[in-house]
Amino acid sequence: MNYIKTIGGIPTSALEGSMRDFRVMDDVDLINRCDAFYNWQDVRRQSGTWPFSRATESGPASSCAVRDDCGNLSNGVNFASQDYLSLSSHPEVANAAHDAMEVFGVHSAGSPALVGNTSISVALEQRLAEYLQMNEAILYPTGWAAGFGVIKGLIRSHDYIVMDSLSHACLQTGAQAATRNVVLFRHNDIEHCRARLAKIRQRDAKAGIMVVTESLFSMDSDTPDITALQEAADEYGATLMVDVAHDFGCLGDDGTGHIGIQNMLGKVDLVMGSFSKTFASNGGFVATNNRAVKEYLRFYSPTCTFSNALSPVQVAAVTKALDIVQSEEGAHLRQQLMNNILSLRSKLSEGGMDYYGEPSAIVAVKTGDEALARITARALPDFGLIANLVEFPAVGKGLARFRLQVMAGHTSSEIDKAVESIGGAMQLATAKLEAGIDQDEILKAG
Question: What's the topology of domain 91-325?
């Protein structure tokens, strides 16, 4: 007889390891390299501890049905979707997209460097620039493309990037593609950033330097001192680039996020953002005060130059979402969102659970141990909650968490259900771990 170690019926191999283990593989055959990852993934899949790659059965409503990648259906309150102001189901947004399709067709006709733009995309660029109190903006096909593209477009191999260590993958990948001179500073540590800048300038007075950060970090729900970063960049002849993906449109009295809250509208060198969190569509943008920068990016930023432009359907959806964001209705939705955020945080605390950061649409519930988090994720569908597990290497080892993404459209009862569900699932997972390892008997093959 062979025996396999399990915890609560889950193979211990499904509770060990991480995606980092398979990032670099030695097999000379590029196809066969994938096998080790798939085998590890499939152990988790078959044991119900692989909570990724799920598909909704309808739009990202506050409660919905999802299927995992084995085809299993579950229903629950949805705290896994990025639809902060609940605009993806707004009838005016849908109508605007439909009307644009009737006029412009369903897709763009080329890249923005050729004839991919439409009159409504040009108008959207100007609207975004005005909203941020900047002179120019340029659209990208995705937020990821904007983050990667602004760095790759402006930075050359002899230049430097000084980047917050927790910056998004699109920013880190763009930096690695642009230059070997990538220097990280400790998360939100302004003095460490200044020290990095000073050291670079001591040995290289002529190279370009881009300082890269986010206005709201999506794993920790915290924000830097943007004013201090811009002052440091100015002092050392560097350019500050701020990614506003997670707070633009949904935080602040006027929806301009932490750049507006910190009175930095129009004062940041480069602002990059995404439409996929608040604006009911794909796409992204870069805003600048310099027309020359916009034109340079159009022809030297590869994800702009060599990608088809945003479709008119997407542009129309974003434009209508922006109309709502800037209206009294938008202000009401932001207040409703913040009420839900504060309610969720308060009820989690009452339930003995902790979370990261300051109030935002991201409420990251602390779990810690990866095994505990995976067993909890396995139980969540039975408790009626759809939530995203974040584990190493997306966060530090032993710092796993469930990133609950709040919508303006969540009801009080849905918030109660989320707290009850995650609390119950964590208690169940803790009990399984405390019960320890048992051995399930497995017959030998043949």
Answer: Aspartate Aminotransferase; domain 2 (3.40.640)
